What does this fold into?
Amino acid sequence: MDAILSGAELVFNLQTLVVILAAAAFGMFVGAIPGLTATMAVALLVPVTYFMAPIPAIAAMVTTAAVTIFAGDIPGAYLRIPGTPSSAAYVDEAYAFSQRGKASECLGIALVCSVTGGIVGTLVLIFVAPSLAEFALNFSAFEYFWLALLGLSCAVFISPGSHLKAVLSLCIGLSLATVGLDSTTGSPRFTFGVTDLMGGVNFIPVMIGLFAIAEVMRFTAKPADTQAVTVKDTGSVFGEVKPSLRKYWKSVLRGSGTGSLIGVLPGAGSDIAAWVSYAVSRKFSRTPEKFGSGHSEGIVETSSSNNAAVSGSWVPALVFGIPGDTITAVVIGVLYMKGMNPGPAIFMEGGSMVYALFMVFIVANLVMLPVGYVAIRLGKGFVATPTRIVMPIVLAFCIVGAYSINNSTVDVMLMLGAGVAAYGLGRAGFPAAPIILGLVLGGMLEKSFMSAMIRSNGDLLAFFSRPISASLGALVIMIWLLPSLIRLTRWATAPR
Amino acid sequence: MLNRSSQTLGECFSGGVVAALGLFIVMEAQGFPTLPGQRYGAALFPLIIGYAMVVGGAWLALANLRPVMQCFTVSRPVNLKATALNFHRLFLPVWLVIGYLLLADTLGALLTLALLVALLMLVSGVRPWLALVMALLTAAAIWVAFVYMLRVPLPLGTLVNG
It folds into this structure.
């Protein structure tokens, strides 16, 4: 009981609550502007959280991530442009709804369902994480090696486009993680005599470069036209919420469940959850013919799902230190920076920190209601903000954000290098997410690999000697072989 | 068609760069020390990644080599002026960040950032008065958030400090 009260004290104080509110407003603004992603919002926020205590810092990022995903629905409803990739699945549905003059109603439904989905995902985290953590206490270096590899493999094979390019992106991230002093021998690697690189590549400037500078370059290369809002909006925000929830409460539960489950899977994020839930909703609907014409059933299930996935993705992130998606990868990096190493020990030691974390997740989702209401009311103004005004400001904040971590211009150069590389790689179809996942997880992967090698005296068969380790290893090998097997089966069964 | 060929060229080039990077990692890692009494050490992990990059990068580059060669053999009129303009537009943020790194110590971070924001807005077609107002507001917001609240020692500049 004392731990719960101490946890509440960490969350329900003026500083943390102001941080949560400010992060929600920031997330709402970024999410509502087409072209700015949730990852970019979190990336821009990290330098600021660097100066905060652990709980407000995590609260800021959790709130921003959750709110940005909802806010992505706003330009979807007004302009038919998804604010974030998570809103893409039902953007046509939302726009068709809005064309009947009911943009506010549509967004009101999405808001309430997002909050519900987020809270269900948090409940999954609260009830599943401690049991998983207890189970994970038996894990050795072998299991952690396979778990890290499983997370990275899922990120590679779930990402759209060429798997080869995703693997190469991952290798770039992993190679960046090897820079600095080697943890087993203590010798410097790839530092070229630069003292600033002895501690490794600072992930914050790299992340800002990957997700913000590359975006600014894309904008200057091809500036987007400002879109005018043409839909008329005459409704009230919560007008359709009650009837929709009464009619489709099963969809809310199913969407929240599906989203939480997909979020828990390493590598699968809220956008995949949204696509899956939209398809499931249509499949099980009694009126599938209404989908695409502004039917609230799809919006209810999908908006519950994408926010549930955001909450669900914290389970592998906090229990094993394996990020579920790019946002959790960033947060894991921040947790390490704050000395709060994610892993089962966090849950087993209990204490106020865990309860504070759980409360932060709930408050972050609840705060979406008032902030979201205001955002829907101001929605037209938000979406009309031209990117040609936003992007130069983003560039200025990128520079100061990268500099502020170590007060070093080397970090600004690192950010610039990462941004140019990300732009070039992006043009060639290389995904950016595996780079950051490789950079964050590379240290853990190598450490567990080397520990396992030393323990087994270099015997690779030892990686399969324990039951859990062998199962995880088999799963990883299956994931890597599956695409080739599918191709082989198709080739063998193709008519000649 | 042009997009597809530029994508192929990009894939070929990126594959080559990744393979070269992998080769560099492999060569550099040869000199890393091993653990006492073992054949492996600090080089093992970078070597695995390096070899993967060499094989994967070379595969990607070679797979796109033929279409790229075909693109080069087909002569196409190139609008040099438009290409140069696009190149400068694309790299404008890069020049601006380099400009910041060069000028911040002299002009001060806030003035340099305000200039950077104003310049990028003007190039993007924002009206001059709006660009100026937004640049000043951005500088003010950065001062409040980073200098005043977070105590980040941004360079004040020799012009201000004397």
